[in-house]
Amino acid sequence: MTLLASVTRVSAMLLLGSALHIGAAQASQVYVTVDVSGTLDMDERGAETNIVRELSVGAGATIESLKWDLQLTSYDPSYLSEMQLTFSDSLGNGVTFTPGGGDDFEGSSSYAGFQDLRLLGQHFQLGDDGLLRLEFHDAYKDLAFDEPEGMWRFGTLAFGVSTVPEPQVLSLMLGGLLAMLGVGKWRPSRAQPA
User: If we measure between CA atoms, which residue out of 137, 181, 176, 161 comes closest to residue 48?
Assistant: First the structure.
């Protein structure tokens, strides 16, 4: 192998290694944290009065996990077990989270935990708009319409998000791979004795 072929092969390997490293870093999981302090729990899912937040996370991103550390207060006669959050893509495909599940009483309580949605088969991908939609709602309407059932007093939700590598990173990875394949097939011609 000539010196030029060796340098070309090493350069192609370095280019591919850099592209793979950048691509892996971009495809890793990051957390998007939301402060829920003071958010009212209003009506059943889909009601116009519910608090809805939309977060721009990235087209094609996958929601893989959820961490929570918060305090809820439900107003009599509504229960803590009725306070819910549905997080989804902009079409409504996602997960309904009930932090006070099983707490069939009114009052205040704190909740903290972590759930890997992949283990439950509940991870989901966002659409081309890249929006993560959060709708705070109640499972059952006990009080009059437009009257709060409770409040997410304070705390945070952290969504584990796996993003899709940018097109330019994918192009860099493909270019490095093609360069390596090209170098692997290229052999310098040997002069034939005359």
Answer: 137
Domain boundaries, the chain: 1-26+165-189, 28-164
Predicted TM-score (pTM) of the model is: 0.73
The predicted-structure confidence for 49-106, as pLDDT tens digits, reads as follows 999 999 999 999 999 999 999 999 999 999 999 999 999 999 999 999 999 999 999 9
CA distance to 30, 33, 47, 72, per residue, from 41 (Å): 28, 19, 11, 10
Cis before 188? omega within 30: no
CATH architecture of 28-164: Sandwich (2.60)
